[in-house]
Amino acid sequence: MIQAVTNVRVPRLTLIIGASFGAGNYGMCGQGYDPDFIFTWPNAQLGVMGGEQAARTMSEVFRAGAARKGREVDEEMLAQQESRVIAHYDRQSSAFYTSGRMLDDGLIDPRDSRRVLALALQTCREGSHRRVQPNAFGVGRM
To answer: Which domains are assigned to the chain?
Structure first.
């Protein structure tokens, strides 16, 4: 899949309609593969990892560190920390949050998906047929 996404010579459009986390996000033509357009639906979630996965990972790291130092783990404190991590990650994985930070090219109504993707394909086709010409004049700054 990664070879196909990397080497393909057709317009690359990404439409995120559900959860898109971690390696799956990149492998399915996420930002790292420089797609022509990325659109999301309002219910989509996007992130390095989900809130629960992040909380579990941080708890495992904390437990391992405490074990190395010979300390006991305060389970109540750890549960509160997990709750805060989950809330933090879930808030930042919202499509509105990620779109507001320009991690996509726009949030679209699911009913408009075909129309928006058709316009994006037309834009890609037009862009591939245009010849870029360098400026023959200087740039004036004020």
So the answer is: 1-48+96-126 (3.90.226.10), 51-92 (no CATH)
